[in-house]
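Supplementary material to the annual report.
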Amino acid sequence: MKNIHTYISFFLIVLMSCYTTGQNNEVTTDFSLETTQTEFEVGNLIELKFSTSREVTPLLYCSSSYGSTLITPTYKNKQLSYKIPSSVSNKIGVVRWKLIFEKTSLSGTFIIKPKEEVSSIETYIGPPSIEAGGKDYTMLVVIPTDSLDNPLSENTLVQAKHQFLNSEINDEIYTKNLIAYKNIYSQKESGRILVSSESLETNSKEFSITVFPAIPIDFKISASRPHDYADGNQITTFNTSTIIDKQNNIVSDGTYVTFFITNEKGNVLKTEGSTINGIATSKMIHPDYETQWSIKAYVDGIAESDVITLNYKQVIKDFDVVFSENNREIIIGPLQSFMKQIIPDGMQVKLLIYKNNSLFKTETKTSFEGLVTFYLKPDVYTKDTYTIVVKTAGIEKTLNSKTLW
Amino acid sequence: MKETSNKYLIIALLIGIVFHGASIFFTLESTYDALIHLFFADHYAHSWFEPWNYEWYTGFTVMSYPPLVHQSIGLLSMIGGLKFGLFTVALISIILFITGVYRFSLLITSNRTVAGYASILAVFSSSFLETLHIFGQLPSIIGISVLMHALPEIYLWLKTGKRWYLATSLSLVAVTVTSHHVTPIFGMIFFIFPLIGMVIIDVSREQVNSMKEVSFKLFLNSFFKLFKRIITFGISSLAIIIGCILPYWINSKNNPITQVPIPHGSRDNFLEITSSGLVFFLIPWGILLILLPYIFYRYFSKRYIFFGLSITILTVLGTGGTTPIPRMVLGETAFNILTLDRFTLWASIMSLPLFGEFVYRFVEGDLKTLIRAKFGSVYHRIIGGILAGLFLFMTVFTISLGYFRPSQPKKIKMLPIVNFLNQDDHDKWRFLTLGFGDQMAWLSAQTNAMTVDGNYHSARRLPELTTRPIERLENSKFKGVAGIGSLQQFLTTPEKYNLKYIFSNDKFYDPILYFCGWQRLRQLENGIMVWERLNVPPVSSILQKDDVAKWQKIIWGILPFLTVLIAFILNIQMLLIHALKTRPKKVPEFLKHSISYSKFSKSILKITHLWSIILAIIIFYGIYQFYLKNDSQRIPENAIMAYYDALDFKEFEKAYSLIDPESDISIAQYMLEISVTDGLLSSYAKLDAIETVITSRNDSVATARVTTEWITPLEKINRVDYKSLSKHHNKWYILPDGLDTDLPPDQLYSNNTTSFFNQGRRRITTEQTHHEDVLKQPVLEVLSAKLVKYNNHYAIIGEVQNIDNVPADVVLKGTLYNNDDKSLATYNAKYHVKHKLLPKESSAFRINFEGIAWSKIQDSIPDTFNPDEFTPIDLDEQPTKFNLQVAGNVSGSDLYKNIAISNLNINDEVINGNLFNSGIQEVTVPQLLISYYDENKTMLWVDHLFIKEGIRQQRKQDFEYKILKEGKVKVINDNMENVFVNGLPNEPISNKIIPNRIENHTNAELQRINHTDFSYIKIETNTYIGSPN
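Predicted assembly:
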């Protein structure tokens, strides 16, 4: 079995070689290439000349990396001359040609070489922003091109230059596979890298790369407030220390910091801020009852602050509750602050009305000139006996079995 | 006999052209339909032979509407622009209508003077006015007008059998059908069939001496005699109706209308919904209502008996849902597709000849003699004055209806929008308009940009639209749940439709746009706000279309004008003879049957009197009821109703007038108190339902429980208020409520913030990607993500953080897969995420998988509105895996973070707390995102709460959140293998930036709660700022 295969392959090889030899024999009889030059500079006129025995004008098939075309010759004195069109001769690379006439076929190649000049430098750089710390980098890709937009030949020297802070660095790189590239690594500092390149005394334009600071490290917080009373009407401001990354760069503006405040009841309050020049500021209204806050700030998953504690002192010591109009009108107050001044308007007073020992309804009002007046509408509170709880500033007063009628 | 010009007709034409010609410039553009026709015309003007239009929906074919009117406007637009075309065609339609009524009246009454009277009356006929000036139904008007022109020709063909008349009548039928398809079909039944009957009776009458001798046998004989002509006409006109707009019929067959019926006022019960009764019954009938006895009496005489039957059916069908008969006659499907107002229009047009006859007899005929003899000439004059007055009142009222009750938003200047779309390749994306009304069609006509919406609902193709009873997304707020639900889907997954820009003319939609992840771009100079969504790919340059055969396109492009040309050639000869009176014309056959107006029936006069009295009683009763309902201070209920209405429509002065004058609040104080309240409820809510229960009342005071339902773009709000009222001088007043007296700490304060501005391109160039100016997409990290099942629906929940140094807009897109990696559903995060994140900020998220609501059981569409209603997607298979694609884009907008949780009180069921606004912007809609955790601090679920009231600067706002009762959450999959950020795998990319992340960092600060299934919660805040300053 195997023998048969060998025979067949052998036979085929013989047959094919006969065929190709035959062809070659015929070509030499009709045409021959007279142009000997096989390397041309791009942009120059390229003419392929063939001598021919007869006056025929076969088309020349011509193929370059940009596509293929057919070229019509001019015939003069037994000579065919083919002018390679500029669409082909303006691009560097290998051009294959083939002349086919009846059974003859002649083929060959020539090379178009780039000019030894730079007219423009194509530059790509990315990403446009990287992180400080020396790990992250951006890649500069430079393609020096000639006046016909062809990349220059291999190993053309390109100066890759960049400036960062006080340093100006000039790297020599060479084109390979048409391009030259350079990875520019960040340094410890954040800032801006300006990049340009030069080749054959032609310079590129300027590119800029932002070096952002790296992720923040732990920081400290502080609080400031006009007084330490829990009057529910002043603002405590929290500040972080200047938040920096591990290379001492101030973190980028807008970095989000959450301040968690845990009060004595174990409830987690929250306020938020974003940094400017590394300092995040956040505000919180004072509580309206005596409490202690412990505050800690976070940059989620990345950094955190120390814990600070703040104490707020009770301002309202006691208040009166007066019933009138069939016990339906309830006046609470005067609510007085730490210097016995009337508490600023807006102190919240809650009325919890219990009916048969279960919470029936909650009414909330804010104080006006130290007083809060509730009116229990007969539509809602029918004639019955209620237990009324007044809550304000953390103080609770229970008034049992009040009959409304 | 030399024929004189009919002076009445000439007067009618002159008045008609001046009156309508002058007024269309003020009315036509704000009608319902005119601008739609303009859009179609624009399509033909640009691509005459190509029926596919990409601009509306996701492409539709204009073969879904007869083309003649649109093509005419399109052709004329080449001379003087689209509007020139529109007004020219409108003028032509006015001329056609007046002459059509004249010819139809002449045919019916056989009296030129009467026909002249009818044509004058037609000019002011309220149904015609309404159709033209309110509805803008040009094709319908042209259709019926040409049909009226055809009727005498049909009569002559049937009577004489001359082929010429067959040709003229068929040519006119062809024009009718190419301008409006419904008109000839129903016109066949309601106009041509009775006409055939009339011809047969006329033929029978000519064989005997008097009408009395016309027996049924004779009628049948004549019918068989004319049978061949009738059949010839019938078959050939049917062939013409089908043949002339053959592509239309093919298209209807291939793309049958399989959509949920859209409610139309003409199908309402007119007694219940009085506004529909006014527009679809009272106005089109107008003064004809008084003459109904006369019209019916005349049409039920022997000669017109078939017209009598026809007008009866038309009248009944025109009553819509008032009686069950139309539904029974038409069947459920036809009833829900057809708009029934056309029946009333035809009935009123059919009445016009007899209206003319009545007026003729009243003004100079036997009726005048009769009334003068019976009641004296003064009475005649008074009655004449009243009738004329009523008629003119109806005319003025109808034409100015659009002024009293604008059906459209104010006219919008389109040029800034058109310019915006042309700038910077904005037309490479689809856009959507909100609150434009029918003017959206005019915008579409002026731009090449495409919209996902459209204004021709029969051509809708997306299931998201066809399954909803809404005409346009554009006005979805008026369409309840279905409307906002549909809109939400487009807003949440806009990349599916390449929807990037929204032009909003209605503040109402702002919160929903914001919470669906849209951002304000800028306000155009015409006041339209442009909203933009990031991360939406442009429309692909090759779009799918349903192509049709070339012959169809050619027929569609050529035939309509050919029919006009043929009709013109065939009929112009007659008209020329008629007009120039070159040779004496034979008296047409139909003029041989005139009756003499010598003895007006006394009983009809009596009945008409009686009927008028009944009508007057009904009208006065209606007005009295209207007064009772609207006298706002007669009873406490009215006072409350009026007060809430005034608040709803922001008529604060009116609301103030209802406030107890003894409460000593000045209007300045009242307005001040109103103006400082902002928020979902006071700025974005529409009152949907109000129920007032007077709980106690005596002579001078009353108390009421007011239950109100408000529609907001985000959710439905139910409120119960208790109001006290007092009575002074027989008028009820409302006692004002107390006011939040909270005083902020500072009068003047400062706040430093980091703000960002993204220039886009630094160089002014149209170059698509100027690579230097392309910003890097911010790197996000998905901290956790899992597929969970809660309450029978699936969701992807988790946390996402912006770990870059620039603020990011976040788009989260989740896909569910089953065990065989078959994709089951894709959806985006809607309300449950902060769409804008500062550097290092994180947000909990939840992606719901919403289905196309109510697509399964069409009948179960709820009547009431609940925008927050959620339709879980119907999954055939069990999802077991998920894929999460997160995309970040640099965005500097909506980064307000100055909201603090300043107090919390937690019990087993509710969380009460206060939010404090420490910044310098007024927060319009605060939102809370509440994440639930189990004992091991693993996230299980994410919920949200919109707070109804806004928060002013340095003020507190309390909130109440009900802790979820149901807590069984099943975690199906928490494998984060298929989580991608900006197309790259989540983990490697985040490891590069944060190699040593502190896992579950803020878990230490979770809030403990008492719940059987959940142990901790976390509350995050998000804010919508309505008017940033």
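The two ends of chain A are 119 Å apart (CA to CA).
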